[in-house]
Write a structure and sequence with these properties.
transferase; alpha/beta; UDP N-Acetylglucosamine Acyltransferase, domain 1; 353 residues; Udp-n-acetylmuramoylalanyl-d-glutamate--2,6- Diaminopimelate Ligase, Chain: A, domain 1
Length: 353
């Protein structure tokens, strides 16, 4: 694509794009701004990276209209948009093309139950297993060694990477991506303690519902409900190595980073941001648009939307930062208290003398 082609391509997504420089230069690939060379495109979305504009070898930069383009090397061109980051994402998607996971069609080594129903143009990889009464929508790709137990329903245009396992009765919407090693619908962690110290397993009779446009990272586990459903709402994005326990509901367009652990019956609102290694006690509720810092320990509900929380136990960020500052000054505070106590003892001695 030349730069004029890229401008026209981005015009599908942005109403206002300004070209500064030549539109005829050919662009062969995207690159990081620090490493970009002639014929490549990069971007600057944050003011702290403006310093790279003068040093970059890229032929094209995607920038905000307020970026200091006067400092650019001769011959560099710019496309100015309000959201350079998202614009560059669309460029990456264009150059990336489609990832090959498996040859199209149903592999000879795949085991597909006679009662399963496969839609138009479904791909099933080597050694995949599709159980009884499964339903798979059009244009869905089932990678090698994927296992679908009985009565799993998967929508259209989904991608299941190799070695995904989906237990019986789970429901997956359209355009869902599930990466390798993830397990959806395993039993929730439910055991009834007995007087003798043993445990009786509680049957996990519910299911999991993954709504449209969800992406789930590698080696993540989402447990089935004891009764009812564990629900991941539309547009949620879940990183690698995340545990979501039984009967949870994760709100639409919420993002959960790696190694977060969410206990049973937690309800997380829409558009929340959950940092890595955050841990949730059970039966809690988070309102919409709450940001949870990495390694936070959430032990109570937060029902006011738009908060930022952090710490162990988690609390509003301003309160927690104030407490951290106080903790850092404990040594100085103790020295002052020791000094005051010494002065008090000396004063008592004088008065009693």
């Amino acid at each position: 694509m030349n730069i004029a082609d890229i401008k026209a391509f981005l015009g599908r997504y942005f109403s206002s794009i300004e070209l500064v420089g030549s539109g005829q230069t050919e662009i062969t690939s995207p690159a990081k701004i620090e490493e970009a060379a002639a014929g490549q495109v990069s971007f600057v979305a944050n003011e702290k990276y403006h310093r790279h504009i003068a040093q970059s070898g890229a032929s094209l930069l995607i920038v905000h209209p307020k970026a200091p383009v006067d400092e650019a090397p001769e011959g560099m061109s710019f496309l100015m948009v309000e959201d350079p980051y998202t614009a560059f994402v669309f460029i990456l998607r264009h150059f990336a093309g489609e990832r090959r996971i498996v040859e199209s069609g149903v592999a000879a080594s795949a085991s597909v139950a006679s009662s399963a129903r496969l839609g138009h143009n479904v791909t099933v990889g080597e050694n995949a297993v599709i159980g009884e009464r499964c339903v798979i929508g059009d244009d869905t790709v089932i990678g090698p060694n994927v296992v679908l137990l009985d009565e799993v329903m998967i929508g259209s245009e989904c991608t299941l990477f190799p070695q995904v396992t989906i237990y019986d009765g789970a429901v997956i919407g359209d355009r869902v991506t599930v990466h390798s090693g993830t397990v959806i619908g395993a039993d929730g962690f439910g055991f009834a303690p007995q007087k003798d110290g043993s445990y009786v397993k509680i049957p996990q009779m519910g299911t999991v519902c993954i709504e449209d446009d969800v992406e789930i990272g590698a080696n993540t586990t989402i447990d089935r409900a004891t009764m009812g459903e564990t629900v991941i709402e539309k547009g949620a994005k879940i990183d690698n190595l995340v545990q979501i326990a039984h009967n949870c509901r994760i709100g639409g367009d919420t993002v959960i980073a790696s190694q977060a652990g969410i206990s049973g019956s937690v309800k997380i609102g829409r558009n929340c941001l959950i940092g890595g290694q955050a841990g949730f006690a059970g039966h809690l509720e988070l309102a919409d648009k709450i940001s949870v810092a990495a390694k936070a320990g959430i032990s109570k509900s937060f029902k006011q939307s738009g908060q930022a929380i952090r710490g162990v136990p988690a609390q509003p960020m301003r309160d927690q930062l104030r407490q951290e500052a106080q903790i850092r000054s404990l040594g100085e505070m103790k020295s002052k208290i020791d000094e005051l106590e010494a002065q008090l003892r000396e004063l008592k001695t004088r008065l009693n003398g």
